[in-house]
Amino acid sequence: MPVFISYSHSDKDFVDKFAVNLMKANIHVWVDRWEINVGDSLLNNIQEAIQDASALLVVLSKSSVESEWCKKELNAGLIRELEERRVIVLPILLEDCLIPVFLKDKMYADFRTNFDEGLQAVTQAVAKVTSSVQNRIDTSKYFTDWAQDWGYKDDLLNLRLTLVEQALGKPFSVLIVINILANKQSTKRYNMYKECGLEHMGRFLITEILSDTISKEDLQIVLTDQFPAILNRTILDSKTSMKYDVEIESRRLGQDTGFDLFVDIKSQILELTQQIRKTIRPLTKDETLLMVKIINTPIDG
Predict the structure, then answer these.
(1) pTM for the full predicted model
(2) In whole angstroms, what is the distance from residue 24 CA to residue 20 CA?
């Protein structure tokens, strides 16, 4: 989900620079001038964007605190805070101005003297709701903390997903480690993305391929004791010769209840992919063209 930037159009030069820098940090941003086309409904689009946003960044300036439209956006964000009981509104102080009363007790990112320091404060603040490499999946029955890391093993790309599932009210948790080893052709394709600054999309596409494959089968692991159980899968694209060897290892941690435990690997992977999909920054037009070019480039063995 994107972060919504609320601002006065008098401050558009600052907002453009600010938003571009957030995008460079792979943060998905929503700016009205970039998203709304001629003829679109301003009210409907902004209302939906605020409702769907992971956070509302409010740029405070002399112009914005006087803007009736900015006041409405702020009120909508504050209502979400009350309803969801979590921080939604993040103030950004662009210049000395009269801070709205409901924001006076909030810590703000200060851009008055140093842009880089203000930017760092914002990226740190939104990390927990915008990260596509580390987060938490919350459901009514359990939560799952997960993280993604990557590197190379014998010059081949190695992507690893680590998940810890905690069922609510249960005296144990479940560790799931998914190792994905790319073959030579798959690694070459990933390196093409990396050279263009699109490695985050390269990793995302691999999780999409994994999710699509797993969605076609009921994948479960049965844990009978404290020792890990392992499943292996191979994903092969016969047209491109790209292949991924997938090893899924799971084990129970905590109290031994004496019962076998069924781990729904399929649901975990699908929920994880869905969360990554929501947080990953969409491509710009230029990046989309690069992606198409890379996808259409033949891969030699």
Answers:
(1) 0.75
(2) 6
